[in-house]
Specification:
3-stranded parallel β-sheet; 40% helix; alpha/beta; 8 helices; single chain
Length: 266
């Protein structure tokens, strides 16, 4: 299990960041154990868990090109309240590439792509009508956000359930207007279902949706094909990005907005 943030660099020189779970009882349990060993600056351990998660989320929204948000059920309003708060608390990177702590909405502020992944989905979630409804809900929840939650070529109608008549209203919504939503089935249940199905007697072996491995490959292609936007005016190498990320994290640790939010929680 990840504690804090783990970093990995692929052979293709893609930097991957993995953060600890947000609003997780395991994180809260760890903080309770740490509180017994050293004094805490927070009045309640629940506040410490929330502030820690907000710092990590705001950091990811500042230094990443694509941020993946994985949920096990749709829809949890607490996740979106948390995301909006993290967006509000993220530091402003001005044109010189430095953190000034201001929040001028007219500035040329950097915002990453955000991809929502519905994990452990059932067969009904792959229906075109279900995806259309989820896209509508996500659009309403993110209507005031400046995060790029649309426009990536993710899981169009070719991944939807073909056993039902086609819904022309969801046929290739257009990349610019499509929601960045990817649906994944339960891995073990998918394997068991395929094993118990006489695939040889089926024309193409289709069992309601592609299997987990195929969908994961498709997800990787979609994420790597996302348009790249630089968080700073100058081009960043791996080394310069690391120094930039370090400066952002140091700023997040002493952010006046985060401190004020912590005071309001107390």
């Amino acid at each position: 299990m990840t504690h804090g943030i783990d970093m990995y660099v692929t052979e293709e020189r893609t930097i991957l960041l993995d953060s600890q779970a947000i609003m997780s009882p395991s994180v809260l349990d760890t903080l309770i154990y740490q509180e017994k060993k050293s004094p805490s600056e927070f009045s309640h351990v629940e506040n410490a868990a929330e502030i820690q998660s907000l710092k990590i989320a705001s950091f990811m929204l500042t230094v990443c090109n694509v941020v993946i948000i994985v949920v096990d059920w749709f829809v949890d309003p607490n996740v979106f309240n948390f995301l909006h708060m993290a967006e509000m608390l993220k530091p402003l990177i001005n044109n010189s590439g430095t953190n000034d702590g201001s929040s001028n909405p007219d500035s040329n502020e950097y915002f990453p792509h955000v991809v929502f992944i519905l994990n452990k989905a059932n067969d009904l979630d792959f229906q075109p009508s279900s995806r259309k409804e989820m896209s509508r809900i996500l659009t309403n929840l993110m209507v005031n956000s400046r995060l790029k939650f649309k426009g990536m070529p993710i899981q169009t109608r070719n991944h939807m359930n073909h056993s039902q008549p086609a819904d022309r209203s969801v046929k290739y919504l257009g990349v610019r207007d499509s929601i960045n939503l990817f649906i994944l089935p339960r891995n073990k249940e998918t394997k068991a279902f395929v094993a118990n199905t006489d695939v040889k007697n089926m024309q193409n072996g289709f069992v309601g949706h592609p299997d987990f491995e195929e969908l994961m490959k498709e997800l990787g292609y979609c994420l790597l094909s996302a348009p790249h936007y630089l968080p700073t005016p100058a081009s960043l190498s791996e080394k310069s990005w690391f120094h930039y990320a370090s400066r952002v994290w140091e700023f997040m640790k002493r952010s006046p907005m985060v401190s004020e939010y912590n005071r309001l929680l107390s």
